[in-house]
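Give me C-alpha cells for this 169-residue protein.
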Amino acid sequence: MTDELAALKSTTDFLLLSVSHMASAEITAASISDLEAKHYYYGLRSRPILVARTGNDTWKLSTGPWAHPPCKELRPVGNHPLNRVWDSLGSQIHDILESKGVKWTSMDVVRIGIVDEHIAPVIIWIGVMPNTLSREDGSVVVKECKQLLVANEILDVEVEIRESVVIRF
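Here you go.
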C-alpha cells in the first residue's frame, strides 16, 4: 500500500470512527425556561415561542440597564449535505410528528443566526399550534428527529420547535 493510500485509509477510518462515536453519543434536548421560551427568538418579527430544541448550548438572558437578548435573523441554508437527503428525511420527520400526535403547522430548513455574526447553524424549524405541545413532549420529539439526522450522518443540524400559526392571504 502506498503512503498516500495508507494516509487516505487512516483519514477515512478516523472519519468513520468519529461518525460512529457521534451516532452513539447521547442526544440531548435543552431544558427550556419560561424566559428562554419567550425571548429565544428575539428579533424575529413573528415573535415565536420556543417549545423545544436540541443542542447543548446554554441560553442566558442578558443583564444590565441596556441589556436585551441577542437579535436573531433567518438566513438561507445554501449548499449543505442535508439538501441531498431532505426529500427522504423530511418525510420521515413528518412521520415522527404524526406518530406523536403533534399538531404541526410548518416544517422549514433555515439558518437562524445572530445579527452581525457570520456563522449561523442549520435548523429544522418545526411550527406547532400554540398551547398544543408541552415542553416535555416537545423534547421527546426533537430528540427523535435529531436521532434520525445522526443516523443519516447529518451531524451539524439542530431541531427546534416553536409555536406558529400559518396565515394564508
